[in-house]
Amino acid sequence: MVAGEPPGPSPSAAVHPSQRPRQQRLRRRINNFFVYRAIRKAIRDCQPAGPVLMAPCGYGWFLDRFRRDGIEVIGVDIEPQAVAWARAAVSPPFPVFQGNVLQLPFVDGQFEFVVANRFLLHFEEGFRARAFRELARVTRRHLLVHYDAVSLHHLWRRLRGVRKPELSDHEMQGWRQAKRRERRLFYDPQLATAEGAAAGLVIRGLYYPWHLLSERVYCLYEKATL
Ligand SMILES: C[S@@+](CC[C@H](N)C(=O)[O-])C[C@H]1O[C@@H](n2cnc3c(N)ncnc32)[C@H](O)[C@@H]1O
């Protein structure tokens, strides 16, 4: 192993997460298809120059799709194992750095387009405010942020009384300590406008993977100074 490099995947995790049975289920695959399409549409609408920053990038399930579509990506994630997986997601790999979203290893305005997928909505207000400011620092134009959306599927689950339990103490270890115990943060125009404004951003549009059935929505922010 090269000094400073994260360790490779452990033997127990020999199968890339994107290839695990859970990811292969039909519903998951359909959902991933529409989610990726919404993110790609936002990127294409903005036509960013240079690579898109995925912060965080997790294990990089979408990196193969970005490669296929000719969209250059740079990834960053706090977990060495996630970084190792993201580097193994496509060959040749996209540049993936180990780092904290609260202190990104990039200069001001390095990227024209930054994506925060499946991330900010999990965290409590104070963390989100700091992360928003840091993500706004490294983008010189756009930031795409994932929120939960009220969907038919969600309403149906609520009618049936299906509710995911709040996070347990065990699930609040390490970086998860800053997480919200409640699992969902629904898009609210007032909240989104306020947290964007506090980081110098204004809302430019919303992207739904699929209307009514979608459990998420992507909010496109732009630097207010542009
Ligand atoms: C639910 S995953 C989402 C990953 C990716 N955005 C995606 O859509 O696949 C959350 C990721 O956030 C990373 N993470 C948590 N706290 C972080 C932080 N402060 N800085 C950078 N990455 C962080 C975790 O390691 C994990 O890979």
Characterize the structure shown:
A 7-stranded mixed beta sheet has the order 3-2-1-4-5-7-6, sandwiched between helices. It is built from 7 helices and 7 strands. It is globular, with a radius of gyration of 17 Å. It has 226 residues and is α/β, with parallel strands linked by helices. Strand 2, helix 4 and strand 3 (96-98) form a beta-alpha-beta unit. The protein has a single domain, classed as Vaccinia Virus protein VP39 (Rossmann fold, 3-Layer(aba) Sandwich). The structure holds S-adenosylmethionine. The site of S-adenosylmethionine (SAM) has 15 residues, from loops.
In a nutshell, what does this entry contain?
This protein has 226 residues and is an alpha/beta fold.
Write the layout of secondary structure elements.
Blueprint: H1 21-24, H2 26-46, E1 52-54, H3 63-68, E2 73-77, H4 80-88, E3 96-98, E4 111-116, H5 125-138, E5 139-148, H6 152-159, H7 189-197, E6 201-207, E7 216-223
Parallel strand pairs: 1-2, 1-4, 2-3, 4-5
Antiparallel strand pairs: 5-7, 6-7
The structure holds S-adenosylmethionine.
Residues 56-58, 61, 77-79, 82, 100-102, 117-119, 175 line the site of S-adenosylmethionine.
Mean pLDDT: 88
Strands, count: 7
Distance between the termini: 44 Å
CATH architecture: 3-Layer(aba) Sandwich
CATH topology: Rossmann fold
Radius of gyration, taken over Cα atoms and rounded to an integer in Å: 17 Å
> Which ligands accompany this protein?
S-adenosylmethionine
Count the domains. Answer: 1
